[in-house]
Amino acid sequence: MISLPSIARSARRVTAPAALTLAACAPQTSIPATAVPPTGKALAAACDGRTGWSDPAPPAKIFGNSYYVGTCGITVILIDAPGGLVLIDGATGEAVPSILANIRALGFDPKNIRTLLATHEHYDHVGGLKALQDATGAKVFARREAVAPLRSGEADAIDPQRGAIPPFKGVTVSGELHDGEALPIADIDLTPHATPGHTPGSTSWTWKSCEGAVCRTIAYVDSLSAVSADDYRFSDHPDYVAMMRATFTKVAALPCDILVTPHPSASDLFARLADRPEVTVSQCREYAFGAARRLDERLAKEKAAK
């Protein structure tokens, strides 16, 4: 059972390490008239019945300066930020051409991507990160727990899915991020939140996105599912389970006007984008409650199988 804190935790803005200094670049704040209209309805229609990790999908606007540029099965987010474009996640290696095409279709130049970030260090979400880094010259930043897997391309030794998830091409990581410390990008308050569980390095992201005077907090919350290799039992790892439960409580308290998840199906994302994403303060709480319930079901199943 999740106990919600009485006061939501707010991100702390701190001085960034030297490695995180972002190159100056004029932001591209609007889509050129020649670009493809990024409609959520087109995305939902194109992916109807298609959920493959690498299935190409058209781009779509989420809100303000934030866009969906991923595949039918995997989310990749583009943020038109002051100082240069930011890309969160890279899907699979096979998906990279369609990701780059989506960025161009929106009227942006992939060479203006300055920062590459990630939710968690599994092939379906970061398998394309190396190719994207090579194509853009952007720098990768990650929390300490994710750095070694991102560099090696191998899952962490305590990752429940180690041995069941394919390896990926490792990337060059330029610097470490810290929980709750906003990146040195003006105006958007782009903040990493440590949400370990699906992997030890799992990271969720919040930032401010505006359309004129109307601003929303987008919460790109990492996967919370208790998924594992066949021979892994969560009940044999009580410390890991406790870490996951702490993450559920944390996610439930995140600022969360618009919820986005690494697997769009996990939050019915396409259907919500088709009608413009509603602002519902309970989205992150419901997502966390659902994950907690499924973890309890998994533990009960393991107990019954003993």
Overview of the structural elements:
This protein is α/β, with parallel strands linked by helices and 306 residues long. It has a single domain, classed as 4-Layer Sandwich (Metallo-beta-lactamase, Chain A), CATH 3.60.15.10. It is built from eight helices and eleven strands. Helix 6 (238-252) packs antiparallel against helix 8 (283-305). The longest helix is centred in the C-terminal third of the chain and has 23 residues, at 283-305. The chain starts with 39 loop residues before the first helix and ends with a helix.
What characteristics describe this protein?
alpha/beta, Metallo-beta-lactamase, Chain A, seven-stranded mixed beta sheet, 11 strands, globular, disordered N terminus
- Spatial shape: globular
SSE pattern, N- to C-terminal: HEEEEHEHHEHEEEEHEHH
Number of beta-strand segments: 11
Strand content: 15-25%
Q: How many individual helices? A: 8
Q: Structural class, judged by helices and strands?
A: alpha/beta
> What is the name of the CATH class?
Alpha Beta
Order of strands in the sheet with the most strands?
1-2-3-4-5-6-7
Calculate the terminal CA-CA distance, rounded to whole Å: 24 Å
